[in-house]
Design goal:
Helix content is 80%, strand content 0%. The protein is an all-alpha fold. Helix 1 packs antiparallel against helix 2, helix 2 packs antiparallel against helix 3 and helix 3 packs antiparallel against helix 5. The longest helix has 26 residues.
Length: 127
């Protein structure tokens, strides 16, 4: 399980850096400041959760059940939250109807909150 969590953390971290650089250089020329800030929010949250997964994957504080659940919630939370933010921020370029996926963002946020809550609960249950 640890290998899967750390691998996922590495992929999330790597793609966050790539997307951040893409936003800072390529998208800077075609997006408004507000759209760039929105895009950057998605990148930040993706990186925060890459680091959280790195911590979970290398820690012995958490049960295997908690690690599996936190990984699942975090992966889908990042995909829904950050992924929908990337689409929303660039919808002028892609011609994707971003309003249709707007509901995905808060669902992703809720999944991330639940992952952090599970992390907290599992930690305080540890003797």
């Amino acid at each position: 399980m640890e290998k899967k969590i750390i691998s996922t953390a590495a992929i999330f971290g790597m793609t966050a850096i790539i997307l951040g650089a893409f936003g800072a250089h390529a998208l800077k020329k075609v997006l408004t400041i507000e759209q760039l800030n929105t895009f950057e929010t998605g990148v930040k949250y993706q990186m925060y959760h890459a680091l959280m997964l790195l911590f979970v994957g290398t820690s012995s504080l958490f049960s295997e059940k908690a690690k599996r659940g936190i990984l699942f919630l975090t992966v889908f939370g990042v995909l829904f939250f950050s992924g929908s933010i990337y689409v929303l921020a660039t919808d002028d370029l892609t011609n994707i109807d971003a309003k249709a996926i707007g509901i995905v963002t808060p669902i992703g946020g809720l999944l991330l909150i639940i992952a952090w809550f599970w992390l907290f609960i599992d930690c305080i249950k540890k003797k």
